[in-house]
Amino acid sequence: MATVLQTTGLRKHYQMGEVTVDALQSVDFVVQQGEFVAIMGPSGAGKSTLLHLMGGLDTPSDGDIVLGGKRLAHLSDDEITIVRRRQVGFIFQFFNLLPTLTAAENVALPLLIDGKRIEDYATRIDELLDLVGLSGRRDHKPDQLSGGEQQRVAIARAFVNDPKIVLADEPTGNLDSKSGTTVLELLRRTCKDLNATVVMVTHDPRAASYADRVIFLKDGQIVRELLPSDKGHSPQEIMDMMAELEL
Fold first, then answer.
1. pTM attached to this predicted model
2. pLDDT mean values, one per 10 residues, the chain (247 residues)
3. Fewest CB within 10 angstroms: 126, 150, 163, 217, which?
């Protein structure tokens, strides 16, 4: 498998008055093409910080990030913006859909921002709406969609540019159990059908059980990893590991 993303010695420090907060401490992390990876840990462990650094939304204090063969530290801010726009898809807890746009238009938004002609991607948009089960809702605006449907639009949007990697920050955190399960099954199926690569931050062992590999963060460091298994990883196994690690 090809390496999509790699971090080496990744550190992030924040200065709060005279106190230095170590959000991440020497994190080495590799993601391969087609993987679905979950990152778990308690609040303040550095999960979202790591996700933001991997997506080029923030810059590290030290260390290296290679995304799609490009070392982010060697790129200008404008170049990082282009990499982020074309090689990274984002899924957020609160959907982040534009209320004045239809489902199809929200899916197309990354293309518009990148200066592409929507007409050239009409088939791609239709295929993604079909993949997420919203072909019949393409002309509906967000306030006409349920929370689960809005998140499915957000998933389609994340994949519209055929990114190298999709980063999901608590994608089920604002959904009920049934809608959350639908979203997780969709992410799992998307990895398989599109050979997509997904890294998901979650605090939920049930959500993490859909991933191939589970990474555990504590105090800004990777403290354990559950490797891919033919049987997968059950929520109970993940909960037991969290208890053992006192997360």
1. 0.92
2. 92 86 91 94 88 92 91 90 91 90 95 90 92 92 93 92 92 88 89 89 93 94 91 91 89
3. 126
